[in-house]
Structures are given as structure tokens and as C-alpha cells.
């Protein structure tokens, strides 16, 4: 059941006494908070000194943090880039200072030579798994879909939208009638879902596709307040598999979620240790398989097991 077992790597001599700067996007979702927890656990287990900077989802704060890490002369930088563009200049500065940069969970449009490697998931595949689930679930019935997109311009928002459309391709009965960003947060997910319900009427919305569970949890609130039943009147499929979506599924208020591991730091630190040891330049690390959970799973047990994983 434990979908993401975090194996704390043995102490590695060449990582101890290293200092790594981590420019984290923020704490916009349960998944993001878990990624931060796991990164700190991994650094601790490997004897790495981690300098943590929370950007409150603002790119300018991430750029400032990276400049600070360069000035401090850290040994490496972890960057979870809030959006995909606007990084070339600051990545050039890190490269000038010969400080390797590893991207976590999101990618950038910058030159590949400007970062050492990226540890991500196949975001298109995640969207496709969600779309295919919905296509099977509605089985030919007409279904108007509303979509809560992630942060505008972020690689997950772009790729999960693309993947979902691939997943529902060929099914003329499925139609995305509204699509707007909820910025990956519960609060925005609720506000935008309220506007969808007002514009379309709950009775005309068959399903919600949310690019992450937190926006889905916010939307569930809005659907209830509109007097409709989430999970039955309006089907809900999202991505991350955070504990609270399993609580919602246990209550029959959500229908499916696609799992994303919060442990991006493990492979990142492995790559850094190999690099520090003998200059090995690692290949990209991608989570290619994405487990689908539905309300038919033992969601109470999954909730309990995930709670112990840093969420
Ligand atoms: C996806 C990651 C997303 C999560 C959200 O790799 O960047 O960011 O799915 C988080 O929960 O906000």
C-alpha cells in the first residue's frame, strides 16, 4: 500500500560537509509541503547542510534566493521553478560560479546546458491517465468537463492540460466547457469552481478535472455549497494523491487521483553525490509510472499510510 517508500540513503562521505541551497516555490499545496519535508529529511540523512528559501510562489523571490546562494558559494542549488520561462540570466550566473543546479518537479525552457539535470515526473502522462479514467468512467454518456489548471506558465499546467486532452481524444461525448487556473491552491480552486458553477449551473457540469488535489478539495467545498453532490452529481479527478483527497474519496466526494511521488530530492542528492565523487553527469530522472487510485480503493488505509510520509 505504501506507494512511496522513502529509503533514507546511507550516509555518504562525499555529501557530508556540503551545503546545498534549495529554492522552493512555496507551500501552495499538500504535495509541495511533503516535497519540502522529504527534501529536508534526505539532506539530514546524507549530512548535507540545506539552506531553504520559500518564494511564496513568486519567481522574483526564487531569482533573489538563487543569487543569494551564489553569493554564499554553496556547493549546489536545487530549484523547483514556479514557471517555465525567465531563468536564463540567473542560471548563467550560477554556471559562471560553477555551481551545479538541479531542477525539481518542474522544468524550465532554458538551455539544457544551464542546469545539471532535472528530477521530474512525466506530467503529460499524469494528465493522460486522468483523461483515460474519465473517458472509461462516463462510458459514452455526454459529459461537460470543467478544468482547474495549475499555475499559469508552469510546466505541470501546460503538460497536464495536454495529457488530459490526449486522454479524452476521440470521445466526442466529452467536452471541456470551462478551463481556468486555480494556481494549485485550495482557496483559488474553490473561488474558480464557484464561478464555473455560476456560469454553467451545477446540473450542466458532469465532471471536474483539477491539475492537483488541493484545487479539487477547494472545489468540493464550492460544489457542496451550491447544493450539488461532489463525486456523484459532479465526478472529480485530480493529481498528486495527497492524504486529504483519499479522505474525500473515502467519503465518496471525489472519484480518482493520480499519484506523484514527493521524493524528488532523493534522486537529486544521488546525482549530486555521484557528481561530487567523480564528476559523473547524471541523466534526467523521470517518474514515468503514475499509479491511479479511485474511490474503490481502501482510501482510509492509504490516508493513514501517507500521513506518515511527511504530508
Ligand atoms: C507537479 C508539481 C505540482 C503539484 C502541485 O510536479 O509541480 O506543484 O502537482 C504543486 O500540488 O503545486
TrEMBL record:
GO MF terms held by the record: carbohydrate binding
Gene Ontology cellular component annotations, sorted alphabetically: cell envelope
Pfam families, per database record: Peripla_BP_4
Residues passing through the membrane, by range: none
Keyword Nuclease appears in the UniProt entry: no
Cleaved signal peptide residues: 1-15
Major subcellular site: other
Cross-referenced PANTHER family: D-ALLOSE-BINDING PERIPLASMIC PROTEIN-RELATED, GALACTOFURANOSE-BINDING PROTEIN YTFQ
Name of the protein this chain belongs to: Sugar ABC transporter substrate-binding protein
Amino acid at each position: 500500500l505504501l506507494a512511496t517508500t522513502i529509503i533514507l540513503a546511507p550516509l555518504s562521505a562525499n555529501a557530508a560537509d556540503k551545503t546545498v541551497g534549495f529554492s522552493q516555490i512555496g507551500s501552495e499545496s499538500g504535495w509541495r509541503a511533503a516535497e519540502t519535508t522529504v527534501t529536508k529529511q534526505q539532506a539530514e540523512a546524507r549530512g548535507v547542510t540545506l539552506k531553504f528559501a520559500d518564494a511564496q510562489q513568486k519567481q522574483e523571490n526564487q531569482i533573489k534566493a538563487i543569487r543569494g546562494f551564489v553569493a554564499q558559494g554553496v556547493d549546489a542549488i536545487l530549484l523547483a521553478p514556479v514557471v517555465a520561462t525567465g531563468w536564463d540570466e540567473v542560471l548563467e550566473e550560477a554556471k559562471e560560479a560553477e555551481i551545479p543546479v538541479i531542477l525539481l518537479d518542474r522544468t524550465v525552457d532554458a538551455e539544457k546546458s544551464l542546469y545539471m539535470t532535472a528530477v521530474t515526473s512525466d506530467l503529460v502522462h499524469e494528465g493522460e491517465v486522468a483523461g483515460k479514467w474519465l473517458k472509461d468512467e462516463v462510458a459514452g454518456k455526454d459529459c461537460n468537463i470543467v478544468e482547474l489548471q495549475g499555475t499559469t506558465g508552469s510546466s505541470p499546467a501546460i503538460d497536464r492540460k495536454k495529457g488530459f486532452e490526449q486522454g479524452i481524444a476521440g470521445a466526442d461525448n466529452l467536452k471541456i466547457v470551462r478551463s481556468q487556473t486555480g494556481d494549485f491552491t485550495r482557496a483559488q480552486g474553490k473561488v474558480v469552481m464557484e464561478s464555473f458553477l455560476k456560469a454553467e449551473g451545477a446540473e450542466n457540469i458532469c465532471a471536474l478535472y483539477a491539475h492537483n488535489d488541493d484545487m479539487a478539495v477547494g472545489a468540493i467545498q464550492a460544489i457542496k455549497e451550491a447544493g450539488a453532490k461532489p463525486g456523484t452529481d459532479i465526478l472529480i479527478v485530480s493529481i498528486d494523491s495527497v492524504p486529504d483527497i483519499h479522505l474525500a474519496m473515502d467519503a465518496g466526494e471525489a472519484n480518482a487521483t493520480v499519484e506523484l511521488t514527493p521524493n524528488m530530492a532523493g534522486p537529486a542528492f544521488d546525482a549530486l553525490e555521484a557528481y561530487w565523487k567523480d564528476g559523473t553527469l547524471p541523466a534526467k530522472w523521470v517518474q514515468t509510472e503514475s499509479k491511479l487510485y479511485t474511490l474503490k480503493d481502501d482510501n482510509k488505509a492509504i490516508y493513514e499510510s501517507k500521513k506518515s510520509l511527511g504530508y
